[in-house]
Design a protein that fits this description.
The chain has about 525 residues and is of the alpha+beta class. The chain is built from 13 helices and 23 strands. The protein has helices spanning about 10-15, 80-90, 105-115, 150-160, 180-195, 235-240, 260-270, 280-290, 360-385, 395-400, 425, 430-445, 495-515, and strands at about 1-10, 20-30, 35-40, 70-75, 95-100, 140, 175, 200, 210-215, 215-220, 225, 245-250, 250-260, 295-300, 305-310, 315-320, 330, 340-350, 390-395, 420, 455-460, 465-470, 485. The strands form 7 sheets. The protein has a 7-stranded mixed β-sheet. Strands 8-5-4-11-23 form a 5-stranded parallel β-sheet, covered by helices on one side. α2 links the parallel β4 and β5 (about 95-100). It is globular and about 65 Å long.
Length: about 525
């Protein structure tokens, strides 16, 4: 197929999308007049192809029956890296055996519902652990800055094949939503099982040499393993270190989550304050583009301060995995229609410049210790302010920036509840002051961003893995354990759903070549 690119107003774009087949859509809201770039499919004569034209969207995958396959491979973790690795193995007639410490997505929903009601944390089944990984109950962004890790479009096609909406095939910043992702993940599981693969839930791997499934001991000493753990599997990192797997501390970021009224963010991003940008008024623009998001970045004394995982029309959720830790993250449903807009606001924590006396692996464990200490501190401060269970410490944004206590707090989407706390005082010096200056910078760009109607909630500490499992760039194998293929976000080589899926595919393809 051929394509044609045009730049139009949002109103014109909405009309075109209703009639013709779109390959790509992106929005430029930086100027006063918002523009939409559309890439439209055309026929050999240059005519636009109708939306309902009977043309194949993409080549459907060809999964093989691996029930009695001669070759098998273990996959530790059922997040996007593990699931896409398993699908790739099935396409190449290799049986995947997935081991997942958490529960299947339906059972996991109940554990998360209890957590949101502040009825307790299940340390093995929560927002971090379980079928689909940490991304299952998140905003569901299918976007990656990586351009070199395989066929990005193929990942989008597979998501669509398993039930994602058509928009994932052409949106520049595609989004599924936490209400739709569980069903898509369940469809992937049914495909894997239906073609002869295995998935064992509530199976936490505590050794690389042997493990148990339903009281049966399996030896995997000479078996290839795709290691697709999530970035919150601290106990697994420590097990790997104990068994001599080469690790290193990597750059990461930590901070807070900030929440504004969505209507305020819409004004700041679409209307540059109060000014209407298009004919038809605010509602027509938001009806087409959806609630506004933002991506903010600045430098403070040589360190990056930036927004992360911005969730328009979303909710803040409890995303920790420790009983005495407090971690927050964000999520949005597919319609992104809640009255709140939230985003991580984090400060760069650079990787160590040089190995210490304990070596790289020791530095990696130190980075885990730092992360856990910050999460425990947030839990302690919430307790000191009268919080119970998963309640989180919070402060009005303007009070945080100005360094004063909040007498009260605005309404917040965080279901377990928030309590007033002096985050400006207890956040570490390498995080708190940098955030304060970062917010000032963002307010200069978007006057009104700092407001008493916004709230900061602590802490956002799981934006990425603080640890990398060292692997060879070409072979994808662990530099210390040749049969181990570390991949995905937990291995330190990806940064979200899409890049993790791509990395899982790459690991599976390399395993296929090697074995």
């Amino acid at each position: 197929m051929n394509t044609e690119q045009i730049i139009v107003s949002p109103k014109e774009a909405k009309d075109i999308e209703g009639k013709y087949r779109i390959q790509r859509r992106s929005v430029d809201a930086r100027q006063r007049d918002i523009k939409v770039l559309l890439t439209i499919l055309t026929d050999v004569h240059g005519r636009w192809i109708a939306k309902d034209a009977p043309i194949p969207l993409y080549a459907e995958p060809h999964f093989q029956d691996v029930t009695h396959a001669d070759r098998a491979a273990y996959i530790i973790g059922a997040g996007p890296a593990g699931l896409f690795a398993a699908l790739t193995l099935i396409e190449h007639s290799i049986k995947p055996i997935i081991l997942e410490r958490g529960q299947d997505v339906s059972t996991r929903k109940r554990a998360i519902a209890r957590l949101n009601k502040n009825e307790g944390l299940d340390p093995e089944s929560n927002y971090c652990f379980g079928e689909g990984g940490a991304g299952t109950f998140s905003d569901g962004k299918l976007f990656s800055r990586s351009k070199k890790r395989g066929d990005m479009q193929r990942v989008m096609e597979l998501f669509h094949y398993f039930g994602a909406p058509d928009t994932v095939l052409y949106e520049a910043h595609a989004h599924i939503g936490s209400d739709l992702l569980p069903r898509i993940i369940q469809n992937m599981r049914q495909c894997i099982l239906g073609h002869g693969g295995e998935i064992h839930f509530e199976t936490c791997v505590t050794s690389l040499t042997e493990f148990k499934i339903e009281n049966l001991k399996f030896k995997i000493k000479n078996t290839p393993i795709i290691l697709a753990i999530g970035h919150s599997a601290h106990d697994t990192y420590r097990m790997l270190a104990h068994e001599g797997v080469a690790l290193e501390a990597k750059g990461c970021a930590m901070g807070v989550r900030v929440e504004h009224p969505q209507e305020l963010i819409n004004r700041l991003m679409y209307y540059k304050g109060e000014r209407l940008m298009v004919k038809g008024g605010r509602d027509s623009l938001i009806d087409y583009l959806g609630n506004a998001s933002y991506s903010l970045v600045t430098q403070v004394n040589g360190k990056g301060v930036y927004s992360f995982c911005m969730c328009p029309g979303g909710h803040i959720v409890p995303a920790g995995s420790m009983a005495e830790g407090c971690v927050v993250n964000g999520m949005s449903a597919s319609h992104r229609n809640s009255p709140y807009a939230n985003s991580g606001m984090v400060v760069e924590i650079p990787s160590p410049a040089h190995p210490t006396g304990g070596g790289r692996t020791a530095q990696a464990i130190e980075r885990l210790d730092y992360q856990e200490a910050l999460e425990h501190l947030a839990w302690v401060e919430a307790r000191a302010a009268g919080g119970i269970g998963a309640m989180a410490p919070a402060q009005r944004l303007n009070d945080f920036v100005e360094g004063r206590a909040s007498a009260d707090l605005p309404a917040c989407s965080y279901l377990p509840g928030i309590v007033a706390s002096r985050l400006d005082k207890w956040l570490p010096g390498e995080i708190g002051p940098y955030l304060q200056q970062g917010f000032r910078d963002f307010d200069r760009k978007y006057p009104g961003f700092i407001t008493r109607e916004a709230v900061v909630v602590g802490v956002e500490s799981r934006s990425s893995s603080p640890v990398r499992i060292l692997r060879d760039n070409d072979t994808m194998r662990s530099v210390s354990h040749p049969l181990l293929y570390p991949c995905g976000e937990g291995a330190g080589y990806a940064g979200g759903i899409t890049s993790s899926a791509l990395d899982g595919i790459r690991a599976a393809k390399q395993l296929i070549v090697d074995n």
